[in-house]
Design a protein that fits this description.
25 strands; elongated; 5-stranded mixed sheet; about 10% strand; alpha+beta
């Protein structure tokens, strides 16, 4: 009773685990929870499926994967010492560097093995380690799928189907005693290749050219092509079994021989220790924080400017979805950035829920109502909103301009930009930043090496076509984090560290003192410009953007007053007196006389002409002005004719007529049907309420502790129901049942047994079919039986439930434990 029997299957190994260990497995492999397995056996079966094993292997670091690869070419089962020898070598070629690697492998192997055990990829005691069959099939060598270790098949596998006569020829050529038993012949040849002394003696007699052939095959791939008449070195190797035939033109170096040539190592370079992320530069942490804060403020201004461009309704959506190349160019020109950077800002606004489609028949992009709420936030809170939207986003702006698998161009805001790996890479890159001392900028190349070590199957080596997706995602993360102000001068800022570790409030508190205070004044100059020496209060900025045009941006924004900009302010309902008062109140310098004259001159002419709807008409009390318009050749296209001394009619629409007369140098004003001047303020088109785009998850989400606890209890209870010992019914009785099948009893027997269990407080085993027709086995403790229903504690679900008697297929008492 005191001894522990080694597990014979993965299910038995899982059954012997504690609840915490089972929860760890489900946390590491959440795909096993969908749906919750009925019992341990079903959990083990699901853990061995190909899709689940592939997903688990993809999340291993390089050394854990190398450990699994070594087990795939080791005997099954393999002792711990054999596994260690495959990773460190037999020690016969050790130098000082090899000793260091062996020491590191010896120290790291228990941890790697624990990871593989936790994820149910390896089971068994140290004396009998077993890699799950599906993982062995994925990682073991074959002609179609060479092993990641570069090793070929064993002698036994390579000689399967070989004629006994050919085996005898190989034994004779190697000096081994003849045997007519093929199994003994294969065993003798395998023993020769694994004997260091005899193998060395055999290779000492090999031609130099033969050794060169082995050198080309030893680290893989182990397959080579031969001609019908091979060269003498190849023939020497083939005669002695060092090259075994796979087909008429293909030979393979058997695994045992390759391991001898490799000094027993499964991998050329074991990597037990993750690469260190080197520092590219060390900067003053305060300078980093200030630089990041400055860029954060620029990010806020850029997003606000972008959405102002589309405030009255943005560009139309392409038929296939997304933004056209022409519109992206316009955005890039307006923001004065390159197109890839413009795509990033557009995608960031979309991810933050500030930009969406309006859903109209002529569908266009426009700001959302959430944009107005975002504008009302403080600058630091607006930044945290953008940063927290960027971190989990699966849309990848860096793909814009590339092509999908079908050769179609990928557009900004298009439907094909989601990459589920992006959030994981983004957070991992920032976590590696955070591990460095404050103010330290990492070296990008060593950072990429670390990421490839952490997920080697998902980060293949760079190819001729370019780097792998995860590496590109990492490089894009470096650029985007700098644009957004997560990093400054290449190093992680303190506010970003707080955002990752403590949340939005802590990050906002650190950022707030570093952001510039909004100003309530400008500096007016005699050349009809105004200089804003810093960010302006929102009301001042909004009014000034109507009254003047932005001429240049930077540390100080320069606005220029023009007749058109002044007229725009008058069209918005401002009077000349209002504009004079506004400038006097917000200028730290005297209002220049040229600016006063400009406002008065435009205001005097503003509205002198009135445009209304006939198709359209022009009305003016001054007949001379109308005569002048009629005489102007530029008005020919408007097809004007006089209806009255003070009224001209046009076949153009009012808007076109208004713009045409403004281009001719007049300052007309639109009027309503009642003759009142129409005030035209800048429109603020908004979409209906929209939710931000949901990130595309990379597999099932990681379950929380509550779900894990419930799942483990359900699996344990189901396992109890599936493995519980039941009393055998008398031979020939109705309740007799085969092992694993649902119990079958009559309605009367079911009712009597359940009532007796309720009276005695004992548990029974039942078969139950629910309303959906799904059958299950359950262990229940009946509490009450009435009205055709049984109220009982369900050990399988670990809760009290009610069961309909007519849905119980049968009932059996549980055997007493002996």
């Amino acid at each position: 009773m005191g001894t522990t029997t080694p597990p014979r299957t993965l299910a038995e190994a899982l059954r012997a685990r504690g609840d915490e260990s089972l929860a760890g497995l489900l946390r590491a492999r959440p795909d096993l929870l969908n749906p919750v397995p009925n019992d341990i056996t079903q959990l083990a079966t699901r853990a061995g499926t190909r899709a689940s094993v592939v997903r688990a292997l993809e999340h291993l670091d390089r050394f854990a994967l190398q450990t699994a690869e070594a087990l795939a070419v080791a005997p099954d089962p393999a002792p711990y010492d054999t596994l260690l020898s495959l990773l460190t070598g037999d020690g016969l070629d050790d130098g000082e560097q090899r000793d260091d690697v062996g020491t590191a492998v010896t120290a790291a192997l228990p941890g790697a093995l624990a990871t593989l055990r936790e994820q149910a990829l390896v089971w068994g005691e140290d004396e009998r380690l077993r890699l799950v069959r599906t993982a062995r099939e994925l990682l073991a060598p074959s002609p179609q799928h060479p092993s990641p270790t570069g090793l070929g098949p064993t002698v036994a596998e390579a000689t399967a189907g070989m004629s006994p006569g050919r085996l005898q020829e190989i034994l004779a050529a190697t000096g081994l005693p003849a045997t007519h038993d093929p199994v003994s012949a294969v065993a003798a040849l395998s023993a020769l290749f694994t004997d260091r002394t005899r193998m060395a003696e055999l290779l000492d007699t090999a031609p130099v050219e033969a050794l060169s052939v082995l050198d080309r095959l030893v680290w893989g791939p182990p397959y080579g092509e031969v001609t019908p008449n091979p060269t003498p070195p190849v023939k020497w190797l083939r005669d002695r079994g060092l090259l075994l035939p796979v087909s008429t033109r293909t030979v393979v170096l058997p695994r045992e021989a390759a391991l001898h040539l490799r000094a027993g190592r499964a991998h050329r370079v074991p990597e037990p220790v993750p690469p260190v992320v080197a520092a590219a530069a060390e900067r003053d942490p305060q300078a980093v924080d200030r630089a990041a804060a400055g860029q954060a403020f620029t990010a806020l201004s850029t997003v606000e400017e972008l959405l102002k461009l589309w405030n009255g309704g943005g560009p139309a959506i392409l038929r296939a979805g997304g933004l056209s190349v022409r519109e992206l160019k316009r955005v890039a020109a307006a923001l004065e950035v390159a197109e890839p950077i413009a795509a990033f800002w557009v995608e960031l606004a979309y991810a933050a829920g500030l930009l969406a489609t309006d859903g109209e028949s002529d569908e266009r992009y426009a700001p959302t109502p959430a944009y107005d709420e975002w504008l009302d936030l403080s600058a630091q809170d607006r930044w945290t909103h953008l940063a927290t939207a960027w971190l989990p986003a699966t849309r990848v702006p860096g793909l814009v301009g590339g092509q999908d698998a079908k050769g179609r161009a990928l557009s900004a805001l298009g439907p094909e930009l989601d990459r589920s790996a992006a959030p994981d890479v983004r957070r991992r890159v920032l976590a590696l930043f955070a591990q460095l001392p404050p103010g330290t900028a990492p070296d990008p190349e060593t950072l990429l090496q670390r990421l490839r070590w952490e997920r080697p199957l998902r980060s293949p080596a760079p190819s001729a076509e370019g780097t792998d997706l995860r590496s590109r995602l990492a490089l894009w993360t470096l650029n985007e984090s700098e644009l957004l102000g997560i990093t400054g001068r290449g190093a992680l800022s303190a506010q970003a560290r707080a955002l990752l570790d403590e949340g939005e409030e802590a990050a906002a508190a650190l950022l707030a003192p570093l952001l510039p205070e909004p100003l309530d004044h400008v500096l007016l100059q005699a050349d009809l410009t105004a200089v804003a020496p810093g960010p302006l209060d929102r009301p001042l900025a909004e009014t000034l953007s109507v009254l003047a045009d932005v001429e240049s941006k930077g540390g100080a924004t320069v606005y220029r007053f023009t007749p058109g900009s002044v007229r725009r302010a008058l069209d918005a309902g401002q009077a000349a007196a209002d504009l004079h008062a506004f400038l006097a109140a917000h200028s730290r310098t005297p209002v220049p006389q040229p600016l006063t004259y400009l406002i008065d001159d435009v205001a005097r002419r503003h509205g002198h002409l009135r445009i209304g709807a006939a198709s359209a008409y022009v009305r003016c009390d001054d007949e001379a002005v109308l005569n002048e318009i009629l005489a102007d050749r530029r008005s020919t296209g408007l097809r004007l004719r006089r209806l009255a001394p003070t009224v001209l009619a046009s076949q153009a629409d009012p808007g076109s007529l208004l713009e045409a007369l403004r281009e001719m140098g007049y300052a007309p004003a639109a009027e309503s049907a009642e003759g009142d001047v129409l005030i035209t303020r800048a429109g603020a088109r908004r979409t209906p309420p929209r939710t931000p785009p949901a990130p595309v998850p990379e597999g099932p989400p990681t379950p929380d502790d509550t779900l894990l606890g419930a799942a483990v209890r359900a699996i344990r209870a189901g396992d109890t129901a599936a493995t519980v010992v039941r009393k055998e019914s008398p031979e020939g009785a109705t309740g007799a049942h085969a092992s694993g099948s649902l119990p079958r009893t009559t309605s009367a027997e079911t009712l009597a047994t359940v009532q007796a269990a309720a009276m005695t407080g004992t548990a029974v085993w039942i078969g139950y079919v629910n309303a959906d027709g799904a059958a299950s086995q359950r262990v229940i403790a009946p509490v009450r039986v009435e009205g055709g229903f049984v109220t009982a504690y369900d050990h399988t679900a670990d809760e009290v439930r009610t069961f309909a008697l007519h849905r119980i297929t049968g009932v059996a008492e549980l055997a007493e434990e002996g």
